[in-house]
Amino acid sequence: MDIFGIPLPAMLSQLLLGLVNGAFYAMLSLGLAVIFGLLNVINFAHGALFMLGAVLAWMGMEYAGINYWLMLVLSPLAVALIGVVIERTMLRWIYKLDHIYGLLLTLGITLVIEGIFRSIYGVSGLPYSPPEALSGATDLGFMILPNYRAWVVVASLAVCFSTWFLIEKTKLGAYLRAGTENPKMVEAFGVNVPLMVTLTYGFGVALAAFAGVLAAPVIQISPLMGQNLIIIVFAVVVIGGMGSIMGSILTGLGLGVIEGLTKVFYPEASSTVVFFIMVIVLMLRPAGLFGREK
Q: Which family does it belong to (predicted)?
């Protein structure tokens, strides 16, 4: 069976592969949305911290013999601690300044992190094999799906929607949102707002590192791997609405699927379709699909 001259199995396989890419977009854009929505900082260092999560996972396996499952926990925790240091020593001084200061500062942090690892490992790829439990593939009839890629989708969706529930539906999330709008009032309830802000940034970058560990066996690990994704992820956040948690998740998944379909119908446009959509959305709805109009 063909659809617009394209065999159905080829279309379904591209849809599924697009969903895998969309899972990475959703995870990364979610971290960006959390940091911008709750801290009002445009975190350009997100791509470098995504890379850092993947490289630390590789280092744990290569130098310490730590398995994938343990590094899936340890690497995000390590990056979260680095994020806490960054927030405490640098970001806390620019919250009341224009957004451009946060963007420039985090861009500088990106260059430092990438430069350090590039000087140590160069720009060539570092191999990272998927865990044995997730090796092999499953025959879906229309394609052979690697088990690890299926795991990436399941793990990403679980983390994304758990984060949305935590921020939007729990008392802790209510404190986080209130703390950014009226910190004095929240402090009156005995909440340590500066500590809460610090932990929020740590959590946001931990999401990037978690995505990096998930990506390690799928894409080539290199000090510049974050550069290939961060611009697309910023576009995802803009389309979904800056600071919108659910918008980032749904837009990331949706754009991954659209990108996959574009590779079937018009491969030459697959690398630009996300930005074309961004231009249209900004013309029609500047706040994004799920953002709030001011």
A: Belongs to the binding-protein-dependent transport system permease family. LivHM subfamily.
Angle at 52 between CA 50 and CA 56, to 5 degrees: 130
Confidence check: pLDDT of 70 > 80: yes
Biggest alpha carbon distance in the chain?
A: 65
Number of CB atoms found within 10 A of residue 3's CB:
12
**Domain limits, the chain:** 2-284
Residue at token pair 């310490």? 64
Give 5-19 pLDDT, tens digit per residue. Answer: 566 666 677 777 888
pLDDT at 7: 63
Strand-pair partners of 7 = 2
Contacts of 252 (CB under 8 A, 6+ apart): 22, 23, 24, 25, 26, 27, 28, 29, 30, 233, 236, 240
- What whole-number distance in Å separates Cα of residue 51 and Cα of residue 28? 11
Task: Assign 6 to helix, strand or coil.
Answer: strand
pLDDT digit string (tens) for 46-66? 999 999 999 999 999 889 888
Q: Whats the size of the chain, residue-wise?
A: 294
What count of other Cβ atoms lies within 10 Å of the Cβ of residue 215?
A: 25
Contact by Cβ (8 Å): 239, 124:
no
